[in-house]
Amino acid sequence: MEKAYSFLDRHPDVAFATVDLSCKPRIRMLRVLSRTENNLCFAVTPHKAVLVQLRANPYAELLVSEGTISVRMAGVIHFDLTMGECREIFRENDRLKETCTDPAGLVWFRMAVHKIDHYDQSCDPPLLESSHF
User: In terms of CATH, what superfamily is 2-132?
Assistant: First the structure.
């Protein structure tokens, strides 16, 4: 669903949802650093609780919205990016370079998206478009 991905490209800061080890929901803001087809790439520092949560339960969702448009994506997390891929993503992200000097100091992962919802509340009635992969 290109409309949803285009919206995400313009709004890379997303609310990222996981479940902690006590089965309670956790939400934090993350930035989508790169996108290829149905894969979204992220990086966090090694001490973040999100890593423990994702290793225990690799299913996650994200939400991004502005005005009357919201996009929700669900997928499975994989920790399989090569260091070459990480360095390329790092090279292309000036904002990431402001907080980190070496991509090897981060933990990189990708979300393989399997469901997308694009919700437009400007229509009457509101329009929900969904895609499953």
Answer: Electron Transport, Fmn-binding Protein; Chain A (2.30.110.10)
